[in-house]
Amino acid sequence: MKQHYVYEITNITNGMAYIGVRSCNCKPEEDIGIKYFSSSTDEAFIQEQKTTDNFEYKVLQVFRTRKEAADLEIQLHEKYNIAVNKNYYNLCKQANGYPDRTGIPHSDALKKHWSATRKGKNNAMFGRHHTEESCDIMRKAKEGLYNGENNPNFGKTASKITKMKMSKKKKGRKYFHTKIGKIIMVFIDDPILKTDNWIKGRGPKENW
User: Fold this and answer.
1) Within-domain flag for 147
2) 171 lies in some domain
3) Residue 141 domain-assigned?
4) Do 171 and 88 share a structural domain?
5) What is the pLDDT of residues 120-161, one digit of tens each?
6) What is the pLDDT of the chain when averaged over all its residues?
7) Does the pLDDT value for residue 5 go beyond 50?
8) Are 54 and 14 in contact (CB under 8 A)?
């Protein structure tokens, strides 16, 4: 039977801790600190656990479902403001089952890694194209998604200051429309968006 538990790992040399949630097919006391050392991406933190006796492991509570365990994890992360609390190894808070990285920028090294591992043949869509059927399914799934009360701006009116800001930002722009097959591409001739004869997201100027 699968076990869902919330745990705390504490470094007894400096008092820093890590709070997380775990689901496994064994008893928590036979898992944490033995087979499992947290879901942290900090390799130094994981390696130190494996090679020293500097850490203490606590199973805070065991639950029947993953959701119940995750709910407690979220509460504890909020209580101790883990994302910015220097006494915790956690790099971000948990929120509704997903890590909340609000206000936490990704490192340049991580961005380069993502870029390198998703380019060319590494991209899941490399050499593939959506069929007309799949395009139709995606199109229908989004139809009316933001209509009426579902629109985040429903019932809201932009203030005069907001309208002035939008107007100022768009002044001087020139729009060019080009039809490529069934698609109408809209290009913006905007000095703010130009960088060394490139349009962000559009490629070299000669291509558009």
Assistant:
1) no
2) yes
3) no
4) no
5) 888 888 888 889 999 889 888 888 888 888 888 888 888 888
6) 81
7) yes
8) no
Number of domains in the chain: 2
Of 68, 100, 132, the residue at which a domain comes to its end is: 100
Q: The CATH number of the domain where 56 resides is what?
A: 3.40.1440.10
Phi/psi region, residue 81 (left: phi>0; alpha: psi -120 to 50; beta: rest), is left
Q: One-letter amino acid identity for 181?
A: G
pLDDT tens for residues 162-207? Answer: 888 888 877 776 666 566 565 555 555 555 444 444 444 444 445 4
Q: Which domain covers residue 42, as residue numbers? A: 3-100
Sequence letter at residue 185: M
Q: What is the DSSP letter of 28?
A: G
Q: What are the backbone dihedrals phi and psi of residue 61, each rounded to the nearest 5 degrees, phi first? A: -165, 145
User: The sheet that has 198-199: what strands, in order across it?
Assistant: 194-195, 198-199, 203-204
